[in-house]
Amino acid sequence: MRLHLLTLFLVIFFFQFGNAQSFTAYFTGNTNNIVTSPMGGICMMGGSTEEDEAMKWFLERANGGDVLVIRASGSDGYNEYMYAELGIPVNSVETIVWNEAAASEEVYIHTKIRNAEAIWIAGGNQWNYVSFWRDTAIDSLINAGITERNIVIGGTSAGMAILGGYYFSAENNTITSESALANPYDPNATVDSQPFLDNAILSDVITDTHYDDPDRKGRHVTFLARILTDYGINARGIACDEFTAVCIGADGIAHVYGQYPDFDDNAYFIQTNCELDDFTPENCSDGNTLNWNREGKAIKTYAVKGTLDGTNTFDLKDWKTGNGGVWQNWYVDNGSFMEEEGGEPECVTVSTSIVDEMKINIFPNPVRNSINLECQGCDGRFSISLMNALGQVCHSQITNSINNLTLDVDQLANGLYTMRVRSNSNVQDYPVLIIN
């Protein structure tokens, strides 16, 4: 069913802990923690009510373990739904609601994150999540669960919005497509790059939700233009209509769940057009309308219908191979978002083996205070970013041919930096020691 009632009868325990009740916890199930071997993965939902089959996928990957729901508003609506209604056995479901930022310091919550085989981030206001959890023990423990214990993670609406390496933080409230296209640097267009949740396959992705209500295609494209302009990163987008979900397994294949053909449920996989020599926006500047046209071919998008069995897919390893979808050309003509039928992009794909064997020679320029790079084995379009210890981008460049590329380091302090090389979905990091 598209709508379901979430009753409260299976809530076994209700807790209020912390200083001045900094959080509220609701528990359902077995109070004895068990340790299982979760199967990892990411489940992203576009908002409104949950897509049941995708949620079953999420719960199955907990492998009978403990599910933790974290949120900054609402109550225990997920407990009965996850524990009993979907028919997937789990040891327990606990919902923890942040009443204030101080809850992030609570040892009880830290323990629950360490014990969880699955973590679900509910909808709400993503700025609460960013401001409450970023640079605290919370994001550190979640990231450790992803990288060290292979937990499955997921979220809906605001919970999906924070799962990418780049994210719309909503620090100054939300923004409409109309406003974002009219001025990409509108104060409400807060596109954040500060490290937060660490999902490797989404490291260069920004997500968006509720794509069909209201229409958010224009603002999502604006976010991509901002990332390209501000950070020099050729990022990608993943978006879901309401009632639609994208579930990504360890193989990098994204399965799209929904109720097509009964409902028009879609997911979108968005990237710049690799066929173009210059794919950057014609104009992305403060106070001016966004213009990202490139003769109507600036962006390539694979639109996929969501089905109950999730058989329609898109491969996030190459961002090209899909099943059950159609390619579209997206562009922005002086502040107006446009979409048309398109074809599969015909681009040179750099295989993982080539990237694995790629050698980058780094040496200082004796004349100028700079870094020179000679790249052997590079083929096709690459981006290079120089980042400091905090992961902040100091210099970046996108090029079709990386050879004797020079990045100035006049403004950099002495210390260890990271040179990040990206080609399609492949990423390699190289340590760089700067000595002025």
Question: SSE layout and pairings?
Answer:
Elements lengths: L12 E5 L5 E7 L12 E4 L6 H9 L5 E6 L5 H9 L6 E7 L8 H9 L2 E4 L4 H8 L3 H12 L3 E5 L1 H4 L5 E2 L8 H6 L8 E2 L12 E4 L8 H15 L4 E5 L4 E4 L4 E5 L8 E7 L26 E7 L7 E3 L6 E2 L1 E9 L2 E6 L10 H6 L1 E6 L5 E7 L5 E6 L5 E7 L3 E6 L6 E9 L2 E9 L2
Parallel strand pairs: 3-7, 4-5, 4-6, 6-7, 10-11
Antiparallel strand pairs: 1-2, 2-5, 3-12, 8-9, 11-14, 12-13, 13-16, 14-15, 15-18, 16-17, 18-19, 20-21, 21-24, 22-23, 22-25, 25-26
Describe this structure as you would to a colleague.
By secondary structure, the protein is α+β, with helices and mostly antiparallel strands. It is about 20% helix and about 35% strand. It has 9 helices and 26 strands. Strand 12 and strand 13 form a beta hairpin. Helix 3 (about 105-115) packs parallel to helix 5 (about 135-150). It is globular. Mean pLDDT is about 85; it is low at about 1-20 and about 350-370.
Features:
436 residues, eleven-stranded mixed beta sheet, six-stranded mixed beta sheet, 9 helices, disordered N terminus
Q: Could you give a quick summary of the protein structure above?
A:
The chain is an alpha+beta fold and 436 residues long. It has helices spanning 52-60, 77-85, 107-115, 126-133, 137-148, 158-161, 177-182, 217-231, 352-357, and strands spanning 13-17, 23-29, 42-45, 66-71, 92-98, 118-121, 152-156, 167-168, 191-192, 205-208, 236-240, 245-248, 253-257, 266-272, 299-305, 313-315, 322-323, 325-333, 336-341, 359-364, 370-376, 382-387, 393-399, 403-408, 415-423, 426-434. The chain is built from nine helices and 26 strands.
